[in-house]
TrEMBL record:
Residues 20-62 form the GRF-type domain. It comes from Rhododendron griersonianum. One of its GO terms (molecular function) is zinc ion binding. The keyword Zinc-finger applies. The keyword Secreted does not apply. Keywords: Coiled coil, Metal-binding, Zinc, Zinc-finger. Residues 71-133 form a coiled coil. InterPro entries: Znf_GRF (IPR010666). The lineage of its organism: Eukaryota, Viridiplantae, Streptophyta, Embryophyta, Tracheophyta. This is GRF-type domain-containing protein.
Amino acid sequence: MSSSSSYTTNLSQYDGDERCRCGRRVVMQTSLTVKNPGRRFLGCRNYKKENGCNFFVWIDPETCPRALEYAKIMQAKKEELEKQVEEFKMVIERLERGRQMVEEENDALVVKLADLTEMNVNLTTTIEALNAQIGARKTREIGPSYFRNIIVVMFIYDSIGYYKPGF
């Protein structure tokens, strides 16, 4: 930025009531350029706009070349750090998507486990009921038939002479 006025000032002379050629109060701004990093200036509120007068005056003294070189180095480091931050943000986004996928899969597995647990309880109940029915049938069928079979075997042994009471 170059000064459009030969007027120079310093911060001690700025009382906040300076006016530009438009008659408006000027605003203090800070340069973010490589040539004048952090250097403060006064400017028209509409500086570089169609209805502005382009009033501009530096408040701070010109930056020395060594400081400018250091500012360039710091700017390069800042840009590198910003790049790393963006890369980390992308990694975090990928990890977050992965975490969400795992969480969704976990939720689905929890539901499936609950369904399988309920199915297991139902099947266990059914098996117990069937075992009870089988046990009841065995008791009904085996009890009388067992005794009937013993009587038949005794009768057969008696008929063929294998069974001799009293021996």
